[in-house]
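Researcher: Next entry in the queue.
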Amino acid sequence: MTTIQDQYTELLKQGQDAALAALETWKKTFQQALGQLPHPGPISPEHVIDQVYDFAGHLLNAQRDLAKQVLATSTTAADKVRESVAQNS
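Model: Structure for this entry, 89 residues:
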């Protein structure tokens, strides 16, 4: 018989595998797109620094949004489980 911990662990592993697969797909797509871009010539180091930090800011905002969505979804799911347990008790 599978315990709730086993089910949770398996669900977590599936989520991690899906995230890794998505990252791998993103990496391949990014590499292909980068290979198709024309070479712009000399680039100033200040410009590169600005672009890197701007990109990092966008990534942090995306991670914040994802974390809030995960929290909202988890909270909703936990509330439903609590309601179900309370009704069956």
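Model: The chain has two domains: 1-37, 42-89.
Researcher: Noted, moving on.
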